[in-house]
């Protein structure tokens, strides 16, 4: 059993402490917006915020995540209002297949939290998610649109 | 003949099975547009023909048979229907009919397969007619109600008007009456110049859920009482499962069952996938690897190299004059050998499918590029007839050709069949996905060009050696043993025709099929053929002492559409103006999937092996552009896929297995490595070409040619990872 605080709610989950947080989120908490892509913290599809820091949830154990504030893509909007990154993603038609975009959006949201007006170099450094469809051009444009709003 | 079609299958199943594997026979394919009996959608709203459902609130539901996998076809196809329907685009929504429903209605929605950049071009005619048919019926229903001639009624944005009497009504109000009418025998389609919805860069219809985590991908399917399965198939292709020691994992948490899957694989079924995977990792498995365990990348390369030798048999794919004689008598000869590796699709979402089986019914939920092929796989694996099976398509996390295959669907059914009544979701680990791809075929190519004394190219011998996809996946499509698709981009004619005129030409393929299973991989045979031909074109230009663009232009006088896209990129990148200091350019063109495309790159190279790509310009002539915003995204995305393949994409074979296991050993480009792609669309009309794949072919040769311009070094082997060349 573990207590995880996800999107503002503390859940008691029947899960072993060494289970990767990704699978506890998907299978035990039932929040499937966070995606499995590689399981080795390479692709970024499973990116969530842990205490506000963009983190690859496949590489963090449940034990390590206990007591911390976890935010998944489902918890990014607040009170029925989409986060500005989600709004920009819709306005700029960023996703193609969309599978990597939960992680991409979480990574971008964390970047903008830290640097509201990121340069291209900031984006290059912070956004390391894989997108096999190749939406990078739209991702970059959408970030700049948010930053200049 | 499809080897997977069992004799037990009924005729209907046979028809689908045959069509689904792409024999082109498509027996029983009819595209009727409705009939006197009203057919209703699940919510009770009437169908106005098979493609359109109109709800009382004027919402228009457009049926989409092809699969959306990120390429935007769902939106483009809806635009084509809506254009002819004259409905209100803001009230359009879409739904997928199931393959089972389609089969039950004589394949009313036609072909479900979504590959070969066919999503729009192969459907556009009948879906537009579907929209036009519905429009005619809806107007007729209003005219009947008003007792006026239909010819006096007009429609705009779903509102029908009879001007003389000042009356108006909406599609939603007349839909019930329209559904009872006999569809018109023939409808006239709009002239493209009158399009108002088609040709516009409208936003996609399916974006919002992809930004909130609400979109259901195959991996997200949840059914009551569902269990999860992890699988290991014999890592040596062609090998078998010998034994496993189930006792070692029986006490492990959550484990429900260990099942054999065919002759080659074993799966652990558990309450969660993490438990299933953890137990599978702990399961001792013995494989019977067989003779293929002796195969390595080196042994494959050696076998393919032997095929480059003129004395070995080969199929001739394109020929004029006498290339060998012309080369023998030429003033000057240039020769080069290139190679292209196996590559994995590496869709972001690993393969998965959810199946539930009982003696009376078998249903599957999965992402697939070919609903009918998945349906045929369900029939075959379940042993049930068509009327007891169905496939529910959900959003695939990438396709790129991989999800046109149905191995994962078959496995899911084979597992579920061993647990009747219990839904089972089979998910491959990334490692399983890397080990059991349907890989980009491996090839080598020897090219010989010959010049006369005035540096005119008089002969070209293009000798390909390597793997055929059709030999493995569609043997019925071979032509007297020859794989016609092997010549994509260098073919004599058709949708992937060679763009140069050479007086003496010989294009041939020594087919050699290693045991590693090949598949259709975004761009397919265009990828390597475009690298070979377009890089060698640069070598020929250099040998002739001519500019690469000018050298090509001289050979393209009889190929005006190929030339037009090449000129378009040359102009946009500023070929005839000096590049910035330290920046070098490369250019390439090819035809594939019915479209003419070209690309140009500007790169700089530091320390001899670190490449920065500064600019990419791409042009395409697909005939018509249905949604320019989506075309732009497909073109840009194709360069990410194509340059990922060039820099990182290589699967090597050791002891009969693929060595790469995950994204740490099979990398993919990140945002910092990718410049903006400047897309130039030059649709010339009169034909329908594809969009998703063609431009991928010019990505690698444009960069490789720029690399030569920068360094004077030719790179003739992919990926650059293995040449110690990286992104800067």
Description:
The complex is a heterodimer of chains A (149) and B (728). Chain A has 149 residues and is of the alpha+beta class. Chain A has two domains: 74 residues, Roll (Ubiquitin-like (UB roll)); 64 residues, Orthogonal Bundle (DNA polymerase, domain 1), CATH 1.10.150.120. Chain A has six helices and five strands. In chain A, strand 3 and strand 4 form a beta hairpin. In chain A, helix 3 packs across helix 6. The radius of gyration of chain A is 15 Å and the shape is globular. Chain B is of the alpha+beta class and 728 residues long. Chain B has three domains: 187 residues, Aldehyde oxidase/xanthine dehydrogenase, molybdopterin binding domain (Aldehyde Oxidoreductase, domain 4); 150 residues, Aldehyde Oxidoreductase, domain 4 (2-Layer Sandwich), CATH 3.30.365.10; 336 residues, Aldehyde oxidase/xanthine dehydrogenase, molybdopterin binding domain (Aldehyde Oxidoreductase, domain 4). Helices cover 27% and strands 22% of the residues of chain B. In chain B, the strands form seven sheets. Chain B has a seven-stranded mixed beta sheet with strand order 9-10-7-17-14-15-16. The longest helix of chain B has 23 residues. Chain B is globular, with a radius of gyration of 27 Å. Classes of the chains: A alpha+beta (149), B alpha+beta (728).
